[in-house]
C-alpha cells in the first residue's frame, strides 16, 4: 500500500483521489472492510442505464463444462447504449448447436434477463495481451458494429 508516488507530487495529484490510487478497478467493500475487485471501469457494460459486470458473466460462462474460455464485451446498441455479447471458445467435443442455449439457461438461473448476452459467438481463441490477459479491446474493435454479431437480439426482443 502506498499513499503517493515517491518524489513525484504531480503524478500523485493526478493518479490519487482522496487517498485512493485510481487503478480503473471497480470494487466493493463489505461491512468488515474487505475489498473485492469485481471488474474494470473500461469493461463494465452500461445497458439501458444499468451496469452489467463483464467479469461476473465471464466467470459464470466459464463454469460450464463445455467452455474452455469466454469473454464478454459491450457492443454498441441503438436503444440500450450497449448490450453484452459473449465470445466463447468451446471445449473439445462440445455440442456447438446446444451450447448457446445451455449457456443462456444457466445464466437465467442467476441473472436478470437484461444481463443475458444478446449473442454467443464462437471463436477459436480469445485474443490475449502481451501479458496473457484477455484483450477485450481487440474484440471491441472487431465487433464495434452490432450488426456483425450473428444472432443479435432483434429490437423488439431486447430486454426492458
Q: Total strand count, please?
A: 9
Report Rg: 18 Å
Sheet bearing the most strands, described? Answer: 3 strands, mixed
H/E element string? HEEEEEEHEEHEH
First-residue to last-residue Cα separation: 42 Å
User: How does the helix and strand content classify structurally?
Assistant: alpha+beta
Multimer state? single chain
How many independent structural domains? 2
Write the CATH homologous superfamily of the largest domain.
ANL, C-terminal domain
**Percent of residues in beta strands:** 25-35%
Number of helices: 4
Judging from the principal axes of the Cα atoms, what is the shape?
elongated
Text of the CATH class of the largest domain: Alpha Beta
CATH topology of the largest domain: GMP Synthetase, Chain A, domain 3
Q: Judging by the overall fold, what is the CATH architecture of the largest domain?
A: 2-Layer Sandwich
**Helical percent range?**
10-25%
The low-confidence parts are 150-159
Calculate the mean pLDDT score and round it. Answer: 86
Strand order of the largest sheet: 7-8-9
Amino acid at each position: 500500500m502506498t499513499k503517493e508516488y515517491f518524489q513525484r507530487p504531480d503524478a500523485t495529484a493526478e493518479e490519487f483521489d482522496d487517498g485512493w490510487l485510481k487503478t480503473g478497478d471497480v470494487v466493493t467493500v463489505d461491512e468488515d472492510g474487505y475489498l473485492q475487485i469485481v471488474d474494470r471501469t473500461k469493461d463494465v457494460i452500461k445497458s439501458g442505464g444499468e451496469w452489467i459486470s463483464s467479469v461476473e458473466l465471464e466467470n459464470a460462462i466459464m463454469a460450464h463444462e463445455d467452455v474452455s474460455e469466454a469473454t464478454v464485451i459491450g457492443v454498441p446498441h441503438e436503444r440500450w447504449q450497449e448490450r453484452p455479447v459473449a465470445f466463447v471458445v468451446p471445449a473439445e467435443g462440445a455440442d456447438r448447436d446446444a451450447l448457446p442455449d445451455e449457456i443462456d439457461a444457466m445464466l437465467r438461473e442467476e441473472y436478470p434477463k437484461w444481463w443475458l448476452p444478446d449473442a454467443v459467438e464462437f471463436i477459436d481463441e480469445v485474443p490475449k495481451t502481451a501479458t496473457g490477459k484477455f484483450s477485450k479491446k481487440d474484440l471491441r474493435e472487431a465487433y464495434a458494429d452490432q450488426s456483425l454479431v450473428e444472432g443479435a437480439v432483434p429490437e423488439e426482443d431486447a430486454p426492458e
